[in-house]
Write a structure and sequence with these properties.
single chain, 716 residues, alpha/beta, Glucose Oxidase, domain 1, Transcription Elongation Factor S-II, Chain A, 7-stranded mixed β-sheet, 4-stranded antiparallel β-sheet, 16% strand
Length: 716
């Protein structure tokens, strides 16, 4: 083999393994600390001057690190903001019409630096400006977490939410789903609050919450978007470029009823007014020890003349929002992209979400830049992405993915997402099953961030305590971050990892200060990661992941994990539906889908064995062809028109549930249609059954195509 051919098939990951030790050595916790201090010193909501200034800072930092290119990429997109001069309020009036309660619209400052004049007032993005009110002594309903099953339970108990204002706890599912469920049931508006059970697990006394711990004080309010579709709402399925056609705002798919977040101190006042003729389910009672959590819709008799009013003043406006896209050109395959991304915008200071990830991203860029200075060149092109307007609904990443769809589907190897690097000490990773094997291997190279010898040891120990699992467990992706357009829309193998709160110790959905005014540098540096050792572990893993996928001659996917996970997901669907009898009753050809999934698993195993047999004998063109076959496999499962009723979720096998956008779901098209059928009858039921038969047929064809895709190149 001549020298050029040797260069083309050289495996840099193995040959230059000493670079892994150099990466571990170079990543500095002190650098990450200072990155985070700078990033989180001021609020930087999307579209603000501070957000733009940070975009320019990142652009320059990538250039300073020695990157080949670093560009600002802008889009004009519809963002939602509250009125800074007319805050959203919840008020309660007595029978005389006197206001006896007014909600807070910003947090109480508890630590130096907590109060900034540019900090956005509490609001839920894209909910309309509106003014709704209950009747005297009635019209307020408590709906637990606002899940479908919670509204079903209210209906079962004889409580109708039509024409009422719903109050519900944050947690368990995406806030937009909570609002959607209430809207579909005819509610006038929604109030969301963070319950102490979820955010103040050791008590609500000042000594037990921020700034003395990571738990949330009573005035903490979780901001966040409620829009159900990702991307710019005025340019669905197309990039919001300068001259793009835009919908009228009235045509956009935005919430129709108001929604406002409050803290648990304010929620206590409201919940104490409520009464009910039916008992509250025990599991619906939260952590406010002096509150009965009555369901409503009536108020206690002594408050029979009271009214609750929800008044919001949000508005929508087009802003210019920036992505920063920076590259290190590959030396052998510059047209193959290994991408890493993290969003930059935050609802406030964003010291955890997203700046813990951005602080890591900058340090990872510096470390790889140092390797460049020392003579290293990646085989494939590295692409660093700082996304804009993620918090408003993944806008920056979606618009960029829509604009570059053809190029990305042709050239992207993997997308790595590090939205929130650190909110606690325990490592968690979700992603395409094709990436499960590499993550397991790479975590064995990273020193532990708490007490274990390696990150893998700590990860395995966590899952042993959690579920007696002999090895760490990875899951598939839900939504809620910038991997969504890459995985669910484009079919690019994607990975999302972070360090989170120990859920073996604390049974909570997210870190308590999430999207509140207490998500500060002080919180992180004092209560979450004082030594910044966890952040350091996140950066080490990111740098090693990028090098693994950029320098390996043969792309290092764990190919067999994909059909295995698909088969297990289908078995779960069957188990939840009378062992598949329900599906066979609706469509007698369902067993053909099972057969197709099994055939795909067998074809993949054969293909993998053939690749292993050839690994050390591959000529350059054979290697290139094999890599193309591997990196494009998931695209076989991209449905051109998307899942039923969801054009932006096109991955047929692994995508979010329609009823909880945060959670991943296997065969979501089947499970969502089956769920819809539970609430239907007559012609509506027949129409959904027809959709299900068509979808099962589509899935069968897709899996048959995937088996064919795994055959030798010359077969079509």
């Amino acid at each position: 083999m001549d020298s050029l051919s040797q260069k083309l098939v050289r495996d840099g990951w193995t040959a230059d393994s000493h670079l892994n030790d150099r990466i571990i050595e170079l990543v500095s916790s002190d650098n990450i600390r200072e990155n985070l201090r700078e990033l989180s010193k001021e609020p930087h909501i999307a579209g603000s001057p501070r957000d733009e200034a940070l975009a320019m800072m990142l652009q320059q930092r990538f250039l300073d690190a020695g990157f080949t290119t670093s560009r600002l990429v802008s889009y004009n997109v519809l963002l939602s903001l509250p009125d800074p001069n007319n805050p959203n309020l919840i008020t309660i009036t007595n029978s005389a019409g006197d206001i006896i309660f007014t909600s807070h619209y910003k947090e109480e400052p508890l630590q130096e630096g907590d109060d900034d004049p540019n900090f956005v007032h509490a609001f839920n993005a894209y909910t309309p400006a509106a003014d709704v009110e209950t009747n005297n002594g009635e019209g307020l309903v408590y709906a637990n977490y606002g899940r479908v099953e919670d509204f079903d339970k209210l209906e079962e108990l004889g409580i109708n939410v039509t024409g009422t204002i719903v109050i519900a706890r944050y947690g368990k599912i995406f806030r937009g789903n909570k609002l959607q469920h209430a809207q579909e049931r005819g509610a006038l508006g929604v109030i969301l609050f963070s319950d102490p059970e979820d955010v103040a697990g050791e008590g609500v006394e000042p000594s037990k919450v921020y700034p003395n711990s990571f738990w949330l004080p009573g005035s903490g309010m979780q901001r966040g978007t409620t829009k159900m579709e990702n991307g710019d709402p005025l340019t669905p399925e197309w990039p919001s470029t300068e001259n793009a056609y835009r919908l009228n705002i009235s045509e956009a798919k935005l919430p129709k009823i108001p929604c406002q977040p409050i803290g648990y101190d304010d929620a206590r006042v409201i919940l104490k007014l409520m009464d009910s003729t039916v008992p509250t389910p025990e599991e619906w009672k939260g952590g406010l020890t002096d509150v009965a959590y009555r369901l409503g819709p009536q108020l206690l008799s002594q408050y029979s003349g009271h009214k609750l009013r929800l008044s919001t003043h949000n508005s929508n406006k087009v802003f210019k929002s920036y992505n920063v896209i920076a590259t290190i050109r590959g030396s052998v395959e510059p047209d193959r992209y290994v991408l890493i991304g993290n969003h930059r915008d935050a609802w406030g200071y964003g010291a955890v979400d997203p700046s813990s990830g951005t602080a890591q991203l900058l340090e990872t860029a510096r470390v790889l830049g140092q390797l460049l200075k020392e003579g290293w060149q990646p085989r494939r092109t590295l692409v660093f992405c700082s996304w804009g307007a993620e918090e408003h609904g993944l806008i920056g990443s979606v618009e960029w993915a829509e604009e570059h769809m053809s190029k990305l589907q042709e050239r992207a190897v993997v997308y790595v997402n590090t939205d929130t690097c650190v909110s606690g000490p325990n490592f968690q990773a979700n992603g395409s099953p094709m990436l499960w094997g590499p993550v397991n291997m790479l975590t064995k190279l990273v020193p532990g961030v708490v007490e274990g010898a390696t990150l893998y040891d700590e990860w395995a120990a966590y899952y042993w305590i959690k579920s007696n699992a002999s090895a760490p467990e990875m899951g598939t992706l839900g939504s809620g971050s910038d991997f969504a357009p890459f995985s669910f829309y484009l079919g690019i193998p994607s990975l999302d990892y972070w360090f989170k709160i120990d859920t073996n110790k604390y049974n909570i959905s997210s870190y308590p200060s999430y999207h509140t005014g207490y998500e500060t540098f002080y919180m992180v540096a004092t209560n979450i990661d004082p030594q910044f050792k966890i952040h350091q572990g996140c950066s080490r893993l990111a740098a090693l992941t990028l090098r693994h996928f950029s320098d390996s001659a043969l792309l290092p996917y764990s190919l067999n994990d994909f059909p295995k996970a698909a088969k297990e997901a289908l078995e779960t669907v069957k188990k939840n539906n009378k062992d598949g009898k329900t599906l066979v009753e609706i469509y007698d050809k369902f067993p053909i889908l099972e057969e197709a999934v099994g055939n795909f698993k067998a074809a993949t195993e054969i293909f993998t064995r053939q690749v292993e047999d050839q690994r050390d004998k591959l000529e350059p063109l054979q290697l290139r062809a094999l890599n193309d076959q591997l990196m494009k496999l998931e695209q076989v499962f991209v449905l051109p028109t998307g899942l039923p009723g969801r054009p932006m979720e096109r991955h047929a096998v692994f995508a979010p549930s329609q009823f909880d956008s945060y959670s991943g779901s296997g065969f979501p098209g089947i499970t969502d249609l089956l769920y819809q059928m539970k609430h239907q009858e007559g012609e509506e039921l027949a129409a959904t059954q027809k959709k299900l038969r068509r979808h099962i047929s589509d899935l069968t064809i897709v899996f048959q195509a995937a088996s064919s895709f795994m055959r030798e190149f010359e077969f079509i």
